[in-house]
């Protein structure tokens, strides 16, 4: 179960392969705040994913959210790397 | 309506859902797994999706396709899971009074699907390797959605 200060992140596509898991959790206090800050944090932790993270969108529920959206502890978001359906 | 399925896709339900005696044109597009890509022999493809967003986007593309073209109906369904060469990965069904509009709309819908739906291909090759395919970034779509502009005009 996530703790109060954690954000749960679903990893899809090549990001699932890079992180070795469909789901990861990061400590992310309210002071850090935004989607952009979360992506920066992930890029620092996993430099090999930085390029793909820069091209990845983020979704919460069934909607895309932009880099400026504020996140709250307990949130669940999905990383959406470039899509390749069809 | 179903937009994603981890079972083999069938056309019958889509045809029944869109049946319309006022339509003289029915266009069906099926995407199938090809046995080669960029010079490598493909043995299978794993398709995965972020279902909440993929389902919503497929529904939005159906609605937009009808709004942008003089057609009666558009239905899209995408497969997930492990597919073998020749398996159907996607169906697009369009009905219209006349063929020109039906062809145009089906092409538009399939292009939009490929550019916007949260689905990923993981190709497996005959030489034992595998790779996720480089795709289309949705970063601009996220910014447009937040700004209330809908999808970027390029799609």
Integer-rounded radius of gyration of chain B = 16 Å
For the largest beta-sheet of chain A, the strand count, sense and barrel status come to: 5 strands, mixed
Q: N-to-C terminal Cα separation of chain A, in Å?
A: 35 Å
The helix content of chain A, as a percent range, equals: 25-40%
Cα separation of the termini of chain B: 24 Å
Largest sheet of chain B: 5 strands, antiparallel
**Count of extended strands of chain A:** 5
* Percent range of helical residues of chain B: 25-40%
Structural class by SSE content of chain A: alpha+beta
Please indicate the percent range of residues of chain A in DSSP E strands (runs of 2 or more): 25-35%
Q: Tell me the Rg of chain A in angstroms.
A: 12 Å
Oligomerization: heterodimer
Q: How much is the average pLDDT of chain A?
A: 92
How are strands sequenced across the largest beta sheet of chain A?
Answer: 2-1-5-3-4
Mean pLDDT of chain B: 95
Please report the two chains with the greatest interface, counting residues with C-beta closer than 8 angstroms to the partner's C-beta.
Answer: A-B, 28 and 37 residues
Number of helices of chain B: 4
Pick out the low-confidence regions of chain B. none
The total beta strand count of chain B reads 9
Give the overall form of chain B: globular
List the helices and strands of chain A in order. Answer: EHEHHEEE
């Amino acid at each position: 179960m996530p703790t109060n200060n954690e954000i749960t992140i679903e990893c899809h596509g090549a990001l699932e392969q890079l992180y070795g898991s469909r789901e990861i959790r990061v400590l992310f206090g309210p002071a850090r705040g935004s989607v952009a800050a979360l992506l920066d944090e992930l890029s620092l932790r996993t430099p090999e994913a930085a390029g793909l993270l820069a091209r990845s969108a983020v979704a919460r529920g069934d909607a895309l959210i932009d880099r400026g959206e504020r996140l709250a502890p307990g949130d669940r978001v999905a990383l959406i790397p470039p899509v390749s359906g069809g | 309506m179903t937009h994603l399925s981890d079972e083999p896709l069938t056309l019958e339900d889509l045809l029944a859902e869109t049946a319309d005696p006022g339509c003289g044109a029915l266009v069906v597009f099926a995407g199938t797994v090809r046995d080669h890509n960029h010079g490598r022999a493909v043995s299978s493809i794993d398709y995965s999706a972020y279902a909440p967003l993929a389902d919503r986007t497929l529904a939005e593309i159906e609605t937009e396709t009808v709004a942008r073209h003089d057609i009666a109906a558009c239905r899209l369904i995408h497969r997930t899971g492990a597919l073998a060469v020749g398996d159907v990965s996607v169906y697009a069904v369009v009905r219209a009074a006349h063929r020109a509009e039906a062809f145009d709309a089906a092409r538009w819908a399939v292009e939009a699907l490929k550019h916007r739906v949260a689905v990923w291909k993981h190709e497996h090759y005959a030489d034992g390797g595998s790779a996720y395919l480089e795709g289309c970034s949705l970063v601009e779509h996220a910014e447009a959605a937040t700004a209330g502009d809908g999808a970027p005009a390029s799609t």
